[in-house]
Amino acid sequence: MHKSPRAGREGDVLAVVSQSGPTVSFFDAASDLHLGDVQVPAEPHELCFDPTRRLLWCTLTYHSGYYHANGGRRTELAVIDPDTRRIVEIVDLAPEHGPHGLALDAASGRLYVSVESTDDRPGGVVLIDTETRRPRGRIDTDAPGPHWFAIDPAGRRGYATNKEAPFVSIADLERGTLTAKVEVPGSEGLAVSADGTHVFVAAPYGNFAGPAEERPPTGIRVIDTRTASVVDTLPTADIVLPVHLTSTGRLLAGEVRMDPDPASRLGRHAPGRLTVFCADTRKQLGALEVGLFPLTITSSPDGRLAYVACVVSSTVDVVDLETLDRLARLDIDRLGEPGAHGLAYIPRPV
User: Which parts form a coiled-coil structure per UniProt (predicted)?
Assistant: First the structure.
């Protein structure tokens, strides 16, 4: 008999950003019960949980809107206590702005935050000391809009995807320098393999303007970190934005699907797709339909459950990765605007 995917999750919590809320909502991971919300300044995007200090970091990216269509870029991060559900501090990174991607090296107490370019310097990654909650340095990425950032398990290398720039930036985190660029046709989400030897990158950039047949082939580029080169592509039917690797080696990709619409050059949003690959064999294991415009994916620490935040439908699909069944769909509060975005799974206090 299969163990229930909900077993043993009592006390665990799922945190979800509503970028138009603007809120961070908390749900019981065993029952999906809505536990409450934290109001945050506009406009929250991504989340990262620090288990050492039991704090939740939230990027406040724009005053309104989204990448390339916003009401101005913010400069702050919200630090939240997920147990008491209150804001502990607002950390201002000014003059850095447009903070978005988050990656934590818990062992060294380093949090990395991607930031957009300014008039006098390219986009980059800001290093924050998680004890003092203050910036300690910056690494340039030589691109205007590094949006997602990931680090290898050893905390030695970092990888920034760049929407418009035709490369992935590789940084030496110990030296704080950019060391290589890997050619890809613009890129979105990414994940690093458990042994640090490969990086899985969604490409091309999610630009839906123009005929699909004129865009580069969609899929996940596989980068060999030893040679800093693309060695394989996992094909997908549609453009991929979020990429996530579970603790059990499943590679999850969120495909954005658009139907033709005579009234819109971009088309009409159709249900998205969660596509599952085996990271080791690079074979597709299956797929299932999710909400509109999947933008963020995370998973439970045991790798059994996936959570897919879909910003246009403002929903989170809870998926059993053993059976590829959808167990629940969480509705995230919004104000008539796109909502669900960043996710974080928070284990109960020990």
Answer: none
